[in-house]
Amino acid sequence: MLTKYCHPSCRNLTDLSLYIALVQDQFNEFGYDAEMAGLGYTLARDSDGLFLGAYGFNDKLHVLLAKLVHGMRHLIVKPERFDVVKDALLRQLQNWKLNAPYDHAMHYTKYLLTTGQWTTDEKETALQGITWFYSPS
After folding, report:
1. Closest Cα partner for 25 from 66, 71, 62?
2. Residue 54 neighbours by CB distance under 10 Å
3. CA distance linking residue 106 with residue 129, whole number of Å
């Protein structure tokens, strides 16, 4: 999905990261079954937006893709799962500070030389500001 709205702010980038983690959390069990059947999927953030890929050599690949798209569109998030996923992302950001110095050097070089980049502290602050909200349609 190509969109210009994924990277204009740190909050948008963080929202997308949280959304991807919540979708992956929802499809964890289903993804295991698909993997056992020789199918798989990738859901990731890239420079142009959101990337969804389905792969495998099975005649049920279209079923996997349809279930993924339906689940992404009609995502139901329980407050307790939201908290677990958000905490995992926060820990991941906090643990990044323990990476090797060359990782930090590469990150800050990219941060200084390109637009649409944010520091780990900025991402952490944005993520802490996100709360669970349910609005029935």
Report:
1. 71
2. 19
3. 27
Location of structure tokens 């996923």: 85
Write down the CATH number for the domain with range 10-128: 3.30.830.10
Q: Which amino acid is at 54?
A: A
Break the chain into its structural domains and give their ranges: 10-128
Which regions in the chain score pLDDT beneath 70? 1-7, 134-137
Q: Quick check: 57 and 38 in contact, CB under 8 A?
A: yes
Q: What predicted TM-score, i.e. pTM, was given to this entire model?
A: 0.85
Beta strands in 1-136 (DSSP E): 39-46, 49-56
Residue 97 DSSP SS3: coil
pLDDT digits (tens, 9 = 90+) for 86-125: 999 999 999 999 999 999 999 999 989 988 788 999 999 9
Q: Is 17 left (phi over 0), alpha (psi -120 to 50) or beta?
A: alpha
65-91: string of b/e by CB count within 10 Å (b at 16+)? eebbeeebeeeebeeeebeebbeebee
Residue indicated by tokens 């893709």: 65
Whose structure tokens read 């959304």?
19
